[in-house]
Amino acid sequence: MFLDHKTIEVRSGKGGDGLCSFRREKYIPLGGPDGGDGGKGGSVILQVNEQYSTLLDMGSTYLYKAPQGLPGGASRCTGASGEDVIISVPGGTLVKDTDGHILADLTEPGQKWVAARGGRGGLGNQHFATPSHQAPKKTIPGQAGEKRVLELELKLMADVGLVGFPNAGKSSLVNKISSAHPKVGDYPFTTLEPVLGIVRYHERSFVVADIPGLIEGASEGRGLGHQFLKHIERTHSLLFVIDGFEEDAYEKFLALKNELHQFHPKLTEKPYVIALNKADIGVENALKTFKKKKEKVIVTSAITGEGCPELVANLDALIPQRHKKTNGWAK
Fold this sequence. Notes:
This protein is an alpha/beta fold. It contains 5 helices and 16 strands. The protein has helices at 170-177, 226-232, 249-263, 284-292, 308-318; strands at 5-11, 44-48, 63-65, 85-89, 93-96, 102-106, 112-116, 147-154, 160-163, 195-201, 204-210, 237-243, 272-277, 297-299, 325-326, 329-330.
């Protein structure tokens, strides 16, 4: 199951109240005020966890509530602060309020964002003594915590996004070049959720995302592809997977580009590679058309592996070095 939207409620802790107290010790008749301050309330913090790939990893919890700070003590002792609550989220999580305004964009490993800040602790009566008023009973209560409802939306973090119509062979191609194992079958919409795969090339690696097959009109909400088009926004490059056996292969390529442009014009500005797939059953006619249109294509077969090494090399060349990983660390 893939989950790319989740609603949560966060509540930070109230600050502890300040204490009204007076020093009472033998042989010290004029001890004076010594009420301590309240502790700070706990905050609720969102943090990117590299081990999370979807919002489903967060579980089914809706309410995240941080503890409040404890009240101040005698002898000017400050109350204990409430512990912060850390909510792990996958990289690529957009945080919005209920009106749809973007509050945070969490993309980097370990990145934090305070969703609800804990209330400040109150002040004890020790702070209000003056020469003319040496026994104040005034205190300040702790500040209330924050409460808000947040909409979490996941946009996959991948270097390459695969785009293609149903049955173009995207899932099979991802199986061939990466560590991912998406569902494969001879019927439309085999891929019902985005799948991430790691492609290794020499000493480096990069991430590809198999996006569910689009249909014409997807940018307007038709089919399954529309809800996943947003995942392509974060990818650095695109891989158009075209069924080279179809007579109108080039028209299908233009239709895909049009759907991306209709959804967001900047998507068509991304660098891309075209894989003319299904070489094992014949792509000669489509290849001639693409050459006539001066579009460079890589002829591939997800069945035999033909063209896959060349495809991986071309994708690797598109991705900036800072996106690639070497020995598990960003290069």
